[in-house]
Write a structure and sequence with these properties.
Layout (H helix, E strand, L loop, with lengths): L8 E4 L6 E3 L3 H9 L3 H14 L1 H7 L5 H19 L5 H12 L3 E3 L3 H9 L3 E6 L4 H8 L9 E4 H4 L6 H11 L6 E5 L2 H10 L3 E4 L10 E3 L6 H4 L1
Parallel strand pairs: 1-4, 1-6, 4-5, 6-7, 7-8
Antiparallel strand pairs: 2-3
Helix pairs in contact: 1-5, 2-4, 4-5
């Protein structure tokens, strides 16, 4: 029987694992514009579907500066699509709603990271905007815990595409079986399993019948798993 490799690196998802969203950006902007929320959401959906330039620029958000430029362009196009006045103040307000801090650490996160940081190499694999690294991870002093931070917009690969996992593994110089992954979506953990990750943890707890993915209700439970 092949001996199981020792876990050396633990990767975390970002949203709903390390941090939780506290701002409803769509509600915030629609209220500012004086629009019904559903009208605003439909306009966004229709615009993204029909505007090829927005789709193209989305794949080139690799820095904070490019992200800000993208949302300025996006919001100009959205106001035009809605038939509203495109004044600089409104565009900047809408842009900063997308870019500025909108998440806070989940209760117990810092204590668990303090514990795990002394025992393992830690990393992040997350589908999120580049700004999250600056306005959540840095602002809340979480960056010090992580040797590797792999964000989908920086490399233009989203989970569950295996490429983002392979990129993260290369960053830390570890084999899949030496790594664990904590995520809030089954489909992301299943890819980690297919790649041969040594341990997969589903957080927060959800219904799942598989025996190879452990499910936890509280992030503090990680201290008893690792």
């Amino acid at each position: 029987m092949k001996q199981q490799a020792q876990i050396k690196t633990i990767f975390f998802d970002g949203g709903d694992v390390l941090v939780k969203k506290i701002v409803n950006i769509e509600k915030q902007i629609s209220s500012y514009l004086g629009l019904d929320l559903n009208v605003y959401k439909k306009a966004e959906k229709d615009l993204i579907k029909s505007n090829k330039e927005i789709q193209k620029r989305w794949h080139d958000i690799k820095t904070l500066e490019k992200e800000i430029k993208y949302f300025r362009f996006y919001n100009e196009e959205l106001l035009k699509f809605l038939g509203l006045k495109m004044d600089p103040e409104t565009i900047e307000y809408m842009t900063m709603c997308h870019v500025k801090r909108s998440h806070v650490p989940i209760a117990g996160t810092r204590e668990v990271l303090d514990y795990l940081f002394k025992r393992y190499q830690l990393g992040i694999i997350s589908n999120c905007l580049v700004s999250r690294k600056y306005f959540e991870i840095k602002d809340f002093d979480l960056e010090k815990y992580f040797e590797s931070i792999t964000l989908s917009r920086e490399i233009d690969i989203d989970k569950p595409n295996s490429g983002i996992y392979l990129h993260a593994l290369k960053q830390v110089g570890k084999k899949p079986e030496e790594c664990a992954f904590i995520d809030n979506k089954i489909e992301n953990l299943l890819v980690a399993r297919e790649l041969g990750f040594g341990k997969m943890v589903l957080f927060p707890k959800q219904d799942y019948d598989g025996k190879d993915i452990q499910s936890i209700q509280s992030i503090q439970e990680l201290a008893s798993i690792f």
